[in-house]
Amino acid sequence: MTHQHLITATKAAFLLSCAVPISMPAVAKDSDNACNPETHGAVPNDGKLDMVAIQAAIDACGGTGGIVRLSAGEWHTGLLTLRPAMEFHLAAGAVLTLVPDMKLYPERIVKRPDGTVEDFHTAIHAPDARDLVISGPGRIEGNGEKFWDANFYELGIPRSTLPRPAPLLSISDCSNVSISGLQFNNIPAYALSINRCEDVRLVDITIRNDPRSPNTDGIQIRDSADIFITRADIKTGDDGIVLKSRLAPIDNLVVTDSIIESDDAAIKFGTRSEVGVTNSIFSDIVIRNSRYGIAIFQIDGGAHLDNRFHNMLIETGGRHARQYPIFIDIDRREPDDSWGRVERLTFSDIDIKTTGASLLAGNANAPIRDLVLSDINVNLPNGEIDLSTGRKPRGSVTIAAQEDSADYSRQSAHFAFAHIQGLVLDNVSVNPGAKGTKRQPSFMNDVTAVGNVDVIGPKQPIMQD
Q: Hey, where are the domains in the chain?
């Protein structure tokens, strides 16, 4: 399976989403002039700060349905605040460059409904974003390394110790939003964050970051519903697409026809999921060179229900020795926390190339329920790594193991299944290739099966020491 030959199962949904236009108010008569940043004093390619002039154009356009266009050339900026009912457009050849001076990105303190307080240094912020369009084909240049410690890559530290704009683009409390055609390069931290939104469409988004870059998640989605993502092309140093649900579920998310390469998880149901991810589909996706293909961490008591992964190619890789094509784990952050749920989860038509193994485990106190794996083919073209050492990941180095934590990551098997009620395996096979394998096809503990749950394989004899 190649990206060029993917069959887009959700094509009808995509066409429907494109057919529904963004509703805008009538454009004011003089809006073309008022919305032009050059009218307010911006000059592309002069090396000077254009932030004040661009913001003036945004303020003039907000609520009018007008379009702020950045023409071809380089524009320099700090914090920009987008308004509802407008379009922010980067034309072909336009480059919006972040100036590496943190004084231009003032701290924002946000108190959440649950009482938590967060601080941000966002570069482009769209609060209360209703009827908003952000469009390319221009580029946003993040100047990432200029915000980090000097010689960051040589220091060998996991994260920059300095403040930096994070996220680069934040869309909050929004509805009826379209983001299309943009490229994000060298971002200093998270690229794009969708917070407490509904009815958002992301089309043709490209993200390019060094795989060693710190905290450079591609797309973060928090507490949002009815999100459609298609033709995303993400290559970054942290999670590709990560979901967090502290106040409301991530519901009815569709991700399709995309390519993701990540130094961590290509697709991650993240820690900080006190509510959960529900009714979502991930289809027609190529995952390359990633530590995890799909990682589902349920550690904060939420409920991941009725989610499906279909028609995918997963190739693990990267700089981490241990790799997981599919990883599911139910655990607890603190000993008194409630147990979370993972139920009615389906993986189908997935080709896997890896040296690692898949771990799908609940807990004796909180089993996975109704798990289906159908038409899964595992190949080991580069051999396999030793699984006998180490421990399971927990989603964050700050999360410690609890007394009742279960860890099956050291089992010598291509699939480790544990604490599952209602497991279905249909045509799940392992092809170890010319180098053979020392592992068993599968390991099972405390599994209630529905029908036959054999993993087929290996197609060659198991090699012995």
A: 1-280, 291-465
